[in-house]
Amino acid sequence: MNPAIKKEIERRRTFAIISHPDAGKTTLTEKFLLYGGAINQAGTVKGKKSDRHAVSDWMEIEKQRGISVTSSVMQFNYEGFCINILDTPGHQDFSEDTYRTLMAADSAVMVIDAAKGVEAQTRKLFKVCVMRGIPIFTFINKMDRESRNPFDLLEEIENELGIKTYPVNWPIGSGKSFKGVYDRDKRAIISFTANGGHQEVEATEVDLNDEHLSEIIGEENYRTIVDDIELLDGASEEFDLDAVQNGKLSPVFFGSALTNFGVEPFLENFLQMTPSPLARESDQGVIDPFEEDFSAFVFKIQANMNKAHRDRIAFMRICSGKFERENEVYHVQGSKKMKLSQPQQLMASEREIISEAYAGDIIGVFDPGIFSIGDTITMPGKKFKYFGIPTFAPEHFAKVSCTDTLKRKQFLKGINQIVQEGAIQIFTEPYTGYEEVIVGVVGMLQFEVLEYRLKNEYGVDIRRETLSYEYIRWIDNALDFDVKTLSLTSDTKIVQDFHDNYLLLFTSEWNIRWALEKNDVLKLSEFGKAQ
């Protein structure tokens, strides 16, 4: 491989940031961008009097609510590394988009609230990371507020998530008495001074044996940190980089994204520990990122990012080689050669047309409606497919119809467009057509996003009726028998998805067991097959 291309790929770091709502994920993302010089001042995520919004929150509904509801992509350079951040929605009503974005990352940063510990959303997202075996780094945030005992937090992470931990640094106090962190590698105390969100953080490094240390951090903090260090050195896991890179050991950092305590040391350590772009599985074996030929897969589609242009962008993760704008490529699922139109790199909604990109990068290309999630792009003559992205089971269901029958065409166009993006899933009862559809979402907020987008982007008002179903299962072997002959409870419904696969909707786990017991032939799955 050309040494210059190899060097570019080696310096790429592509990671997702995951967390429960309000753990501080978007704030941490902003501080990373700040250190990379991508922005001059961190946008306040909340604050009624401020006109600033988090850079990663570009959708109007996000700015109104102060939360992330769709994944965004940001690229910046920092100390020789080219960093691609995939910022996922942390809100409890997040979408399947969040799961899918994790399929494009090489590692994940898990943000945990120091007062609350491991929360429900964190567990869900963690499962997807484990499924892929990617490295997971933990940032325990909000140490500037009163927090739980750090040893208890580590124990909870290990017990709840089933991953071992290695604290890279250790907090000194919390809340008003938070004085900084102890760097275990340097065996030094790093005390910080908050600076209102600007880039330069006043940090003072003090040797553990410095005679003035107790004056700097306070006598009580001094006694506690000495005891904690002795316990850490004697009882904690040994650091093992292989275990980290295989997702078996999570390096843990303590800090406060809001006040900049510990963010820069975290970023620097993280970049050294996290791998350059990982190899990917395909139907023709493993594809190495350092192979000469360009290849990529589509993991996200977003329509109407620019309302003025009614555009549709396909987000691609480059998996191997170098992308060059003028080169002809091959769309495997579409079986045709093409040039990728208007290739761009993104800073949330800000875009820049580019002429080249490398394995590990995320690019957006104009999509006239030919790409689907999971599609593979290669060089002409190469016809392998990356393993597709599974369809994750929605958890909430509603029957949706258009209030104005004269706008049915716009309704169907809007619904289908949003389905292709993967923000929602739609189901129909066999033989009934699309007069009304059942919409399935991972999080309830997606219903509001659907209503908002249909009204604002397509001029359509909808009627929504919440359904009592809680579980959905794909029928793996629907071709082996006539699904109409299944023996099911009265509150179980047979539906078809966007790809005409048969599924069952259930109101309870008991109904699932009943269906399997009464139908020996039936095989069910929690995930839809990748298309």
Mean residue pLDDT: 81
The CATH fourth-level homologous superfamily of the largest domain? P-loop containing nucleotide triphosphate hydrolases
Structural class: alpha+beta
General shape: globular
Low-confidence segments, ≥5 residues, pLDDT <50?
Answer: 41-59, 65-71
In which range does the helix fraction lie?
25-40%
Radius of gyration: 25 Å
How does this model look, in words?
The structure is a single chain. Helices cover 25% and strands 29% of the residues. It has 531 residues and is of the alpha+beta class. It folds into three domains: 13-273, P-loop containing nucleotide triphosphate hydrolases (Rossmann fold, 3-Layer(aba) Sandwich), CATH 3.40.50; 280-378, Elongation Factor Tu (Ef-tu), domain 3, CATH 2.40.30.10; 396-525, Alpha-Beta Plaits (2-Layer Sandwich). The strands form eight sheets. It has a seven-stranded mixed β-sheet with strand order 2-3-1-4-5-11-6, with helices on both faces. The chain has a six-stranded antiparallel β-sheet with strand order 18-17-23-14-15-22. It has a four-stranded antiparallel β-sheet with strand order 7-8-9-10.
